[in-house]
Structure formats: structure tokens, C-alpha cells
Specification:
The complex is a heterotrimer of chains A (512), B (104) and C (641).
Chain A (H helix, E strand, L loop, with lengths): L10 H18 L4 H25 L8 E9 L4 E7 L1 H25 L4 H20 L3 H22 L4 H29 L10 H6 L6 H18 L8 H8 L2 H26 L1 H27 L4 H21 L3 H32 L10 H4 L1 H14 L6 H15 L7 H27 L15 H19 L2 H17 L10
Antiparallel strand pairs in A: 1-2
Helix pairs in contact in A: 1-2, 1-4, 2-3, 2-4, 3-4, 3-10, 3-13, 3-18, 4-5, 5-6, 5-10, 6-8, 6-9, 8-10, 8-11, 9-12, 10-12, 10-13, 10-19, 11-12, 11-17, 12-13, 12-16, 12-17, 13-15, 13-16, 13-18, 13-19, 15-17, 16-17, 16-18
Chain B lengths: L5 H21 L3 H25 L6 H30 L14
Helix pairs in contact in B: 1-2, 2-3
Chain C lengths: L10 H21 L2 H27 L4 E11 L2 E9 L1 H24 L6 H20 L3 H19 L6 H32 L4 H14 L1 H18 L8 H4 L5 H10 L4 H8 L1 H5 L2 H22 L5 H21 L3 H29 L15 H14 L6 H15 L3 H26 L6 H6 L5 H22 L6 H6 L16 H28 L4 H7 L1 H8 L4 H46 L7 H24 L5
Antiparallel strand pairs in C: 1-2
Helix pairs in contact in C: 1-2, 1-4, 2-3, 2-4, 3-4, 3-10, 3-15, 3-20, 4-5, 5-6, 5-10, 6-8, 7-8, 8-11, 8-13, 10-15, 11-15, 13-14, 13-18, 14-15, 14-17, 14-18, 15-16, 15-17, 15-20, 16-18, 16-20, 17-18, 17-20, 17-22, 18-22
The chains are: A mainly alpha (512), B mainly alpha (104), C mainly alpha (641).
């Protein structure tokens, strides 16, 4: 559907403001857990609806930015408040609002017991940051939003987390901060190199508008700084060790959003900023990134196999899945790029759902060690069905969503003809990761679900209606995106091709 | 009637200032340290007034600045004395060497 | 009235899918045993439509029609549709799959009657049929892969159907993992196909094969080998065969449907479908033939000594699939599809017969059976006929198809593979005879078991009888006269590269001679079996003692399971454990050590913070002094830049 003129003007600003508006009454009712839950649910739901309206307003097939709003912010420095979405970000925004709504809804079901009001405030603030990262077009605004995601998550893990929450949250913040500080330096350098004094800018559309690009020497280091920030966020091997700790200690809602959205900010940043702004720099570092991606796929899967903690297992599987994202992005062709964006979306849905289900299980049994579990299949038929489908999607079963992205990435990888070794080596190697995924996921599923059920767990109930309500949209997306991925690809592809063209990639043109 | 030369004012001001510095560094009684700080402030005031009166380029700005310093000094004394009093209540001493709560 | 049945082809998989969805959503709460009726009715409809399409294709001659539903994935120059290809090959497969599936669904109503998980069973079984039909009907490799992995999933679910016990779920995991290794090959083959031909659709790829083979023969060989790796996983060939015998942990109708009649033949179907590709990939073709022949012999030898009735049948299935690959490898894909069809009937019948026995006795060990033919006459007679078909006794179905395969090996210049085929035929006849004697003849060896045995109800015996019709007559109807029968005329041009390849009449003297040799070999096998198990001369126990080491080797299945399940699995676990240790201690260790260094630096620096105001004031004064000195130095010219 195309609404022309758009039925909601300034919809992106609205998306940034709604959570902030929701915080105001939350501050008033911060001691009233019931009211806080209701306010948060309503706010995130309105946000979800508005984001869906935004999606409906989006004109499919156009590569450029849409719904752009641009006003001077700090005019003396050429910094603007500039927001807009293209085919890459529009879906990530919707994923963000959906997962936030589900997280808040699930947390309201009793998963968060202390300081509910404060938790909801942190979550709404987090939502502002996450939506902001995906809609910001000014590098300065992007940086602010990138950091804004960090602080609420720091609190969410540090206050509502598990026993080792302080260690985990410090590790998470220090890692991410180290990367983003490098990026800040690079942003300042980009500003100074963007033109003569007076016409300097940090606006992404302006930076890519002209034919002139940054000097090659500058690109090499600027790309490295940007890429490091995003590589840590993603995370790429060997910067991944904060992720398992953060996931293990985070409350369920935190894990969902961390895996579902925060990691995507890294992949998104690479595709949106690092690649188009510094194509020559990208070429220099590209072989290393390809190798690290394949290493991440195999290594993440290998480490996942022997994990004893459910959350840690899924966290390491995220490392492997994110390896597909970077691999797809850096082979620099249409299939790889589209596959990478799809993989980001699918991973957000599926891994978000997996963390949700681990959380549900933990709420019931208070156990997360795989050895302590077993035999739920007969006992919780509904839980088993949901969890089983998400596990299958995660291991890339064709017909479910995980397959489409992974297959396109593999296809793109085979096509990669670059230096020093072509994709004909990396493709089959990366495909081994798919075998390993089946091993660790099904082995986990077997140990948790099959066998006799323990006496202590026999009285525990199956999914509650609210849990079903949280999982159902994710399940629907898992199946729909696997069976009918084409409408989504149609949204993604033009924008991906535009970014890759800026990155100097050879983009194959469809022959009909 | 001959005017007192400007360097004489500066010399007095500098002398007063270093007396203040010495007082801050040497004395241990918090009240005395506060008084020494006061002395340093007023030493600079003297310099300000002298420049203001004798140097044409300085104009009236020196005198205006002195007013600001008076205000800041008054505020500083008020806050400083309050801190000293609060510290004295916690432990009955005004010896700054014993007030090492900020030790890292 | 003229209905375009071919245009309705999407209903053939669609109806079982609908049944699966209904049973899956409502089975546990409301439908319970009604799920069986729903699934059976759906499969009945599907079978009627499937057979109608088969006859429509027969009537129309050599049609190849694509029925497109929608575009599935399209990114850049890569496009794949959800589309069905209806041609003689897929029509044959559809007819076989739907008919056999329908009968097995009906049988399952009786077999699973008392199982509390019946709703799960009748969700997954129609889901399996849906995916199998997707595999068969797909008009491109990627959609075929959906069905390919999907049937693997259903196989996983159904092997592990009784998931409270460790044996089923271990077997289920093993099946999925081994299939995944094969699927790795399938994925690579698919992608290489796209890169080489620019499409994954069969009717785009195959016309270009000959041209590409001129310029890139190595690529074609690689693609063929990659697909064949996929086929070895799905069709349980060496070296990825060992999941199939373990898969017998599932309910017996599942073994009949998935692990004998349909899913495991998917690999054969893939190779047959890709005949134009394999035909120009010489070395790959030879690999297919050798793997097929060796697997046939290898599995048959293991089947000689098995005591579990289902395991005998499982190894026999592996062996028969080997025959089919042998046929593909020696350039006789029609014979492979022919054997696939006849095998579907007689092997499904054998499994259902064994299911009937297991249902009656709750025992799978043949050593405790014996004499059951008096208690279960229908089961016995149908089993006997199916066994005859397996042993390739003319004029039963297996004779025509297997003979064609073995004959093709000879006429296409592979006398060694021919000999292997004939030898395997002897072994097949022997173990079939042994199985039938141990189960149905002689005196009851366990009277308690014998006394409780009974003939199965009609819902189970009627499918047996219907399948028996197929097991007896399918070969004659489809394959007579040899090498020029209906199935040849029907599939020529679809499966073989050129339609006119066999215009002259086959050499019937040679064919008859080869057939006679094979039949004699089979009869020798039966005779030995009869002597050993009916007459006890020589006594089987004495024989096994006489060939001690060989018997031990066969009894332990060549120790392959020990290798796979222990050595490789433990090696993998050690490797992954090492990776984990590396992660926890080296990578994370560096991170933690870095943090430790920073905190060490901090604890050094904190000493500066004495907390004594005088010290701070002194450092301020000292700093001021330094500044004055430096400034004064520059101002007076003592210091220079």
C-alpha cells in the first residue's frame, strides 16, 4: 500500500518521541508496578502501530531515503537532526518496535519483580536509542543514539541481572565503549575532512552525494575505527567474549533485545556507514574480515556445541550467525548483501524467540544448566512445539526464515572472486557451519526436551496465554519469512544495491 | 603630593598573596587555612584596584572585578565554614591532616 | 466435462499439508484418534488425484508442464519459483508416493491405535507426505531442497517418536546429522549449478549441460559429485548409511513409509532427475556405480546375520538402494526408477508385514518367533510374496526391475559390477529365506509369545493385500517386455538424455541369458537358506562357528558404528571442547588480563590520593611554580622552542 500524501507526517520523529512521552507518566507512577506495566505496554504498543504505519507508507522499490526530516541542530558545527529510512533500516525499525513490545509484555507477566517502574523507564529509553540508531542519518546523531543504547542496557543487566551481573555489565560497557570511542574519533576526523571550513558536514546523504571521496590513506584508518566499533557490537571473533557473559546475566527481556536488536546495530553500521563512506579502506581490510567471518561461523558453532548453559549456547550460536552477516556484507554482491540483511532480521526474530523461551523455562524451573533439564516434550506440548520450530529455524531448515538469508549469503560467498582466496573455498567452509548448527541445536533440544521428565518439574504448567501472545507473532514471522520472503527482499534489495554500489562493488543487474 | 608608585602596590599585593599561600600550605587548622585563602583573594583585589586606578587601558573593569571577588569570597567563606563545622561534628578536630576521608 | 487435473497438481501436496495443519492444531485437544481418519481421508484424496495426474500424463504422452504458484526468492539475478514440474518422471513418483502413503496411513490407524501420541503421529506423517511430494514435484533444485530437508526433519521426528527412551532420540539425531552432511553436498551442488548455468530450474539447466560439459568438464563432475554426496546421505549409501538401520527405532509404519518406500529413494530420484547432468560427468558416474554396487553387497552381508526382523529389512533396503544407484551409474536410470517403484511396493509390504507381526507379538527378535504362519495366514502369505519379490523370483515385481539393473551393468561394460550384483542377489535370496523361516515356519520357539499372537484386524490386513497386488504385478505391468516395457516408453526422453537411444530391439538372447544367471543365483540362495533353516543341515550355529572371525565382523556390522558413534563423535567432542577452552582461557583470558592490568595501574595511582589537603595544595603550588618558571624561561629567552 502506498499512502500519498503520507497519512502520518514526521513519523520518524514521532517514533523517537513516543517512548519519551511514555516516560513522563512512568516517572509519576514509578512506585506503582501495575500502572508502570500498563503504561509501558500501551506506549510500546502505540510505538509498534506507528512503526507499522511507517512501513505502510514506505514506497517499495525505491533505493533512497524516505520520510526524511532534516533541521539544523548545531548549525555552527554543521550538525543536523536528520532522520530517514531506506529499505535496509525500515524493517529493522519495525523489528525493534516489535521485539521491544514483546519484551515489555513478557516482563509484565512477572519476570521482573523489583523496581518495575525503573525497569520500564530504562526499556523505553533503550527503545529511543535503538530506533534512533536505525533512523539517524547524521553521523553525530547516530553516535548519540549508538551510545544511548548502551546506558539503559548497562542498567538493565546491572540491576535486574543474575548473580555475576556486575562483571558482565562492566565487560559489556567497556568493550562497547572502547569501540565507539574509536568511532567518535573517526567521526571527528570525517567532519574535518568533509570539506573546507564552513561547509563541513556529518550528514550521510551529503557525504555520499558528491563524486569526491576521502583520501585513500584516510579511508584506511577511518574504516578501521568504524569497523572496530561495529565489530565489537556485532560481535565478531575475537571481540565476542562480552556477549555470552552479558546474555547469561541479562534478564530475559534484556537478552531478547540484546540479541535481537543491539547486535544488528553493528551489522547495520557496517553496511550503512563503514562500507559506503570508505570503499577503499574497506578493500584493504576486507580479506581479514572475510576470514574472521568464516572463523566466527565455524568457531562459534564449535564452542556452542559444548556449552552447558542454555543461554550461553544460544549466545555463541549468535556469534556464528553474525558471522554469516559480516560474510554476506563483505563479499560485496547483491545476494550476499540481501542475504546479510535478511539474516539480521531472521536472527532477530528467531534468536529473540529462543531467548524468550529459555527465559520462560527458567521462570518455571529456575534452572538453566542443560544437565538439570530434560523430558519437557511430553509435559509441555505447546512449549515444545514453539521452541522446536524456533530451533529448526535457527539451524536453517528450508521453508523457515533462517534458511533464506543463509542460503543467499552462501550463494554470494561462492561468487566472491576477491583476494587472496576466492569464495570457492570460503563458501563450502561456511556451509559446514550449517552442519554444526544442526549438531549443537538438536543435541541441546534432545537433552532439554526428550527423555523422562524430572519429578520436580511435573507440576509446572505449560505456556500461559500471555507467553503464547508473546511468541505467536514471532512464530508467524518465522514461517511467513521462510515461505514468502520475496516481499521483504523487494524492500531490501534496491537499498542494499545502492549501498554496495557506493562501496564500489560490482552489482549484478537483474536480467528478466 | 606624590603618588605612591604602582610597583609598590604590586609588591604589597604579591607579599600578601605569598603570605596567604604559605598559610594555606603550612597551617593545619582549617579555619586558619580559610583565612589564608581570604588573604590571597584580597591580595589580588589590591592588585586589581591598583591597576584599575593607574592603568588607562584597564579602566573601571578592575573595580568591577573586585566586586565579583567579594561576592565569591563571601560565598566561599560561608560554604567553607559550613564544611568545617560539619567535619568538626563528625570528628572533633579541625586539623586538616587528620581529615583524610578522601584517601584513595 | 474436461478438468485440467495437471493444473490442480498443487492440491496433491496441498491436501496432506492441510490435514497436517488441522491435526497439528486441534489433534491434541479435540481430535485424538480422529486424526488418523482425517489423515487417511486426505491421503486417499491425494492418491486419487495423484493417480489421475499420472494417467493424464500417460494419455498426453511426453508432457513436461510447469505449474507456477509464486516467486519464492529473487535477489539480483537469482530467481527461484515455487513451481511444480509435471512430467513422466514426477508423475510416476507422485503416483507411487501417494498410493503407498495412503495404504500405510490406513494401516497405521490399526497399528498406532493405542498410542497416546497418535495425534503427533498423524500430524507428522501427512506432513512428511507433503514434503516428499514437494521434493518430487519441485521444478528446481532449491525447492527440491525444501522437500529434501523437510522429509529429513519428519524422519527425525518420527524416528524419535518415542522420545522418552534414549535409543529413539539418539537414532533420530544420528539420522538428521548424517543427512545434514549429505545436505552440505546438496547445498554446494545447488550453488555451483546456479553459478555455472545461471539458473536452478531443471528445464533451464539441462539443455545447457552439453555445451558446458565441453568447456568445463571438471565443474560438471564436481556438481555431480556434490549432488551425489547429498544422495548418499538421504539414500543411506556408503559412507553415510548407518543411520538407516538405527532409524528402525521409529514406529514400524514409519519404517515402511519413510525408510523403505519413499524418503530414502529421494537420492535415487535426485540422480535420476539429474540424468542429463550425470550423463556427461563420466568420473562421477563411475563413482555412483561403484558406491552403489559396494553398498549393495556390503549391506547384504550384514543382513545375513541380523536377528531383529526390522534390521534385516533395513539392511536389505540399503542394499536395494545400492542396486538403484548401480543402475544410475551404469547409465540405466530408467531401470533405477523402475526398481524404485517396485521396491516401494514390496518393501513397504515387507515392513508392514513385520509391523503386523510386531503388533501381534510385541517382539522384534526373530529368534523368539517361529511357526507364526498358522496364526497369521494373511500376513504370512503377503510377506512370502513380497519376500519372493525381494529375492527376485519371476514373475514377481522385483525380478523384472532388479534383473534389468544387473543386466544393464553387464551390457554397459561393467562385468565386475555385474558379478557383484549377481552375488548380492544370491545373498538377498538367502537372508530373505532365513527371515521367512525364522519368523513363520518351524516350531514356535517362545510359546508364551506364540499363544498370544493373532492375526491383525482388517484395517491392517487390507492394506497388506492391496500392496501385495503391487508387489506381484507391478513388475509385469510396468516392465514387460524387458527394456521395452511401459515404463521405458513412458520415461524415455525424460530420464535418458536422448529419446531415440534405444530404437532397435533389445538383444533378448543376451537378456534372457543374464536373467537366467541371476535367477539361478537367487535359487541357490534360497536353497542354502532352506537347507540351513528348514533342514538344519548344515546347522546355522555350526556354520557361524566355522567362519568365526567373519561372523564376528558381520555381527558387529564391520564395527562401523563403533567408529562413527565413538571415535568420530568423541574426536569431535574433544575438538569442540578444545575450542571452548581456547575461548574461555585464551581469548577471554586476554580480555580479563587486560582489565586486570588497568586495575593494577589504578591501584598504583591511588596512592597519590592521600586525602590530606596540604598535599593537594602543595602539588597545586608546585605546578604553579613550574608554569611560572617555564613561562619565564620563554619570556626571557632562556628557553627556545
Amino acid at each position: 500500500m502506498i499512502f500519498d500524501p503520507p497519512i502520518l507526517p514526521s513519523v520518524l520523529t514521532l517514533l523517537l518521541v513516543i517512548p519519551l512521552v511514555g516516560i513522563v507518566p512512568l516517572l509519576a507512577f514509578v512506585r506503582d508496578a501495575r500502572a508502570a506495566k500498563q503504561i509501558a505496554i500501551v506506549t510500546t504498543f502505540v510505538e509498534l502501530v506507528v512503526s507499522l504505519i511507517m512501513l505502510a507508507q514506505f514506497r517499495v522499490g525505491e533505493a533512497g531515503f524516505q520520510m526524511v526530516e532534516s533541521v539544523p541542530w548545531l548549525p555552527s558545527l554543521g550538525i543536523r537532526y536528520e532522520v530517514g529510512v531506506d529499505g535496509i533500516s525500515v524493517l529493522l525499525v519495525v523489528l525493534t518496535t516489535l521485539l521491544t513490545f514483546i519484551s515489555v509484555l513478557y516482563s509484565s507477566g512477572g519476570a521482573i519483580k523489583q523496581r518495575v517502574g525503573e525497569f520500564m523507564i530504562a526499556f523505553l529509553l533503550l527503545e529511543v536509542g535503538m530506533v534512533g540508531v536505525f533512523v539517524a542519518l547524521d553521523l553525530f546523531l547516530f553516535y548519540v543514539m549508538f551510545e544511548l543504547m548502551l546506558i539503559p542496557m548497562y542498567l538493565i543487566i546491572g540491576i535486574w541481572g543474575g548473580t555475576r551481573r556486575v562483571y558482565a555489565t562492566l565487560k559489556f560497557v567497556l568493550f562497547t565503549l572502547a569501540g565507539s570511542l574509536l568511532m567518535l574519533v573517526a567521526i571527528v576526523a570525517v567532519y574535518l575532512n568533509s570539506g573546507p571550513a564552513g561547509s563541513r558536514t556529518l550528514s550521510f546523504p551529503d557525504l555520499i552525494a558528491g563524486p569526491t571521496r576521502f583520501a585513500p590513506e584516510f579511508q584506511v584508518w577511518a574504516f578501521l575505527a568504524f569497523a572496530l566499533a561495529f565489530a565489537i557490537k556485532l560481535p565478531m571473533v575475537p571481540f565476542h567474549t562480552w556477549l555470552p557473559d552479558a546474555h547469561v546475566e541479562a534478564p530475559t527481556a534484556g537478552s531478547i533485545v540484546l540479541a535481537g536488536i543491539l547486535l544488528k546495530a553493528g551489522g547495520y553500521g557496517l553496511l550503512r556507514f563503514a562500507l559506503p563512506l570508505f570503499p577503499i579502506g574497506a578493500q584493504v581490510w576486507l580479506p581479514i574480515i572475510i576470514v574472521l567471518s568464516v572463523v566466527a561461523i565455524l568457531y562459534g558453532a564449535a564452542v556452542s556445541t559444548v556449552q552447558k548453559d542454555l543461554k550461553k549456547l544460544i549466545a555463541y550460536s549468535s556469534v556464528a550467525h553474525m558471522g554469516f552477516v559480516t560474510l554476506g556484507l563483505f563479499v560485496l554482491n547483491t545476494q550476499g548483501g540481501v542475504g546479510a540483511v535478511l539474516q539480521m532480521l531472521n536472527h532477530g526474530v528467531v534468536t529473540g524467540a529462543l531467548f524468550l523461551f529459555v527465559g520462560i523455562e527458567y521462570e518455571k524451573t529456575h534452572r538453566r544448566q542443560i544437565a538439570d533439564l530434560g523430558g519437557f516434550a511430553n509435559h509441555w506440548p505447546l512449549y515444545t512445539a514453539f521452541f522446536g520450530i524456533f530451533v529448526l529455524a535457527s539451524l536453517g531448515l528450508p521453508g523457515l526464515n533462517g534458511f533464506v538469508g543463509e542460503f543467499l549469503v552462501l550463494l554470494g560467498t561462492f561468487r566472491y572472486g576477491g583476494q587472496p582466496i576466492s569464495g570457492l573455498l570460503w563458501g563450502p567452509l561456511a556451509a559446514i557451519g550449517v552442519i554444526l548448527a544442526a549438531i549443537y541445536l538438536l543435541w541441546m533440544f534432545q537433552r532439554v526436551m526428550y527423555g523422562p521428565v524430572r519429578e520436580a518439574y511435573k507440576a509446572l504448567p505449560d505456556l500461559t496465554p500471555i507467553e503464547v501472545a508473546c511468541a505467536a507473532p514471532l512464530l508467524a514471522l518465522t514461517i511467513l519469512l521462510g515461505v514468502f520472503p520475496q516481499p521483504v527482499i523487494a524492500i531490501i534489495q534496491p537499498s542494499v544495491e545502492r549501498m554496495l554500489a557506493l562501496a564500489g562493488a560490482t552489482v549484478t543487474v537483474a536480467v528478466h | 603630593m606624590t603618588l605612591v608608585p604602582l610597583p609598590a602596590f604590586i609588591a604589597v599585593s604579591a607579599t600578601l598573596f605569598f603570605i596567604g599561600v604559605a598559610g594555606v600550605l603550612v597551617r593545619r587548622n582549617a579555619v586558619v587555612i580559610l583565612m589564608s585563602v581570604e588573604l590571597m583573594l584580597n591580595a589580588t583585589n589590591l592588585a586589581f584596584v591598583a591597576f584599575s586606578r593607574r592603568l588607562a587601558v584597564a579602566g573601571e573593569r578592575g573595580s568591577v572585578f573586585v566586586v565579583f571577588v567579594f561576592v565569591v569570597a563571601a560565598a566561599e567563606v560561608a560554604v567553607g565554614l559550613a564544611i568545617i563545622l560539619a567535619a568538626y561534628r563528625n570528628r572533633p578536630t579541625v586539623d586538616v591532616d587528620q581529615l583524610d576521608e578522601m584517601k584513595g | 466435462m474436461n478438468i485440467d487435473v495437471v493444473g490442480l497438481v498443487w492440491l496433491v501436496p496441498g491436501i496432506p499439508l492441510a490435514a497436517a495443519i488441522v491435526n497439528g492444531l486441534f489433534g491434541r485437544r479435540w481430535l485424538h484418534r480422529a486424526t488418523g481418519v482425517i489423515a487417511s481421508v486426505a491421503l486417499g484424496l491425494s492418491a486419487v488425484l495423484g493417480v489421475a495426474i499420472f494417467f493424464a500424463v500417460v494419455a498426453a504422452g511426453h508432457v513436461a508442464r510447469t505449474v507456477t504458484l509464486y516467486e519464492w526468492i529473487g535477489a539480483g539475478d537469482f530467481h527461484v519459483n515455487v513451481a511444480a514440474l509435471v512430467d513422466p518422471l514426477s508423475a510416476t513418483m507422485v503416483a507411487v508416493v501417494t498410493v503407498v502413503s495412503f495404504l500405510i496411513h490406513v494401516f497405521s490407524n490399526g497399528y498406532m491405535e493405542h498410542d497416546p501420541g497418535i495425534h503427533r503421529f498423524f500430524t507428522w506423517l501427512p506432513l512428511f507426505v507433503f514434503l516428499m511430494l514437494t521434493l518430487v514435484l519441485a521444478d528446481n533444485y532449491l525447492l527440491m531442497f525444501v522437500g529434501w530437508e523437510g522429509v529429513g526433519l519428519c524422519s527425525y521426528l518420527l524416528i524419535g517418536f518415542w522420545f522418552e527412551r534414549p535409543a529413539p532420540y539418539t537414532a533420530a539425531n544420528k539420522a538428521f546429522w548424517m543427512n545434514r552432511i549429505g545436505d552440505w553436498g546438496f547445498t554446494i551442488g545447488t550453488i555451483l549449478t546456479f553459478l555455472t548455468f545461471g539458473s536452478l530450474t531443471f528445464h533451464d539447466v539441462f539443455p545447457k549441460v552439453a555445451g558446458v560439459a565441453q568447456t568445463q568438464p571438471l565443474t560438471i563432475t564436481f556438481i555431480a559429485l556434490a549432488f551425489f554426496l547429498g544422495a548418499t546421505g538421504k539414500s543411506a549409501q556408503l559412507p553415510l548409511y548407518s543411520w538407516l538401520p538405527d532409524a528402525m527405532e521409529g514406529p514400524t509404519p514409519v519404517s515402511a513409509l519413510i525408510h523403505a518406500a519413499t524418503m530414502v529413494t529421494a537420492g535415487v530420484y535426485l540422480v535420476a532427475r539429474s540424468t542429463p547432468l550425470f550423463a556427461v560427468a563420466g568420473p562421477a558416474l563411475l563413482v555412483v556405480a561403484i558406491i552403489g554396487a559396494v553398498t549393495a553387497l556390503f549391506a547384504a552381508t550384514i543382513a545375513l546375520v541380523q536377528v531383529d526382523i526390522k534390521r534385516v529389512l533395513a539392511y536389505s533396503t540399503v542394499s536395494q538402494l545400492g542396486y538403484m544407484f548401480l543402475a544410475c551409474g551404469v547409465g540405466a536410470p530408467i531401470a533405477a526408477v523402475f526398481h524404485l517403484a517396485t521396491h516401494a511396493f514390496f518393501k513397504a509390504l515387507l515392513f508392514l508385514g513385520s509391523g503386523s507381526v510386531i503388533h501381534a507379538t510385541e517382539e522384534q527378535d526373530m529368534r523368539r518367533m517361529g511357526g507364526l504362519r498358522r496364526k497369521m495366514p494373511i500376513t504370512y502369505w503377503t510377506f512370502l510374496l513380497a519376500g519372493g519379490a525381494l529375492a527376485a523370483i519371476p514373475p514377481l515385481a522385483g525380478f523384472w526391475s532388479k534383473d534389468e539393473i544387473v543386466g544393464a551393468a553387464f551390457t554397459n561394460g561393467q562385468p565386475i559390477l555385474w558379478a557383484v550384483g549377481v552375488g548380492t542377489g544370491l545373498l538377498t535370496a538367502f537372508y530373505t529365506t532365513r527371515m521367512i523361516y525364522l519368523t513363520f515356519h518351524g516350531e514356535p520357539r517362545d510359546h508364551h509369545l506364540y499363544d498370544h499372537a493373532h492375526e491383525s484386524p482388517a484395517v491392517m490386513t487390507v492394506p497388506l493385500l492391496l500392496l501385495c497386488v503391487g508387489a506381484v504385478f507391478a513388475g509385469l505391468v510396468l516392465g514387460f517386455p524387458p527394456e521395452a516395457g511401459f515404463i521405458h516408453r513412458f520415461l524415455e526422453g525424460t530420464v535418458t538424455a536422448e529419446a531415440a537411444a534405444q530404437s532397435e530391439l533389445p538383444n533378448y538372447v543376451l537378456i534372457a541369458g543374464l536373467a537366467a544367471t541371476a535367477v539361478v543365483a537367487g535359487l541357490i540362495g534360497i536353497a542354502i537358506g532352506y537347507a540351513m533353516y528348514a533342514r538344519r543341515r548344515p546347522d546355522p550355529a555350526a556354520v557361524s562357528r566355522a567362519v568365526g572371525p567373519i561372523y564376528t565382523l558381520l555381527w558387529n556390522k564391520y564395527f562401523v558404528d563403533e567408529l562413527y558413534d565413538h571415535r568420530i563423535l568423541e574426536g569431535g567432542r574433544a575438538l569442540f571442547g578444545a575450542a571452548w577452552a581456547f575461548d574461555a582461557h585464551i581469548i577471554d583470558g586476554i580480555v580479563d588480563r587486560l582489565a586486570w592490568l588497568v586495575s593494577l595501574l589504578g591501584s598504583g595511582l591511588r596512592r597519590v590520593q592521600t586525602g590530606i589537603v596540604g598535599n593537594y595544595a602543595l602539588s597545586i603550588a608546585a605546578g604553579l611554580l613550574i608554569l611560572i618558571v617555564v613561562y619565564g624561561g620563554y619570556a626571557t629567552g632562556v628557553l627556545h622552542r
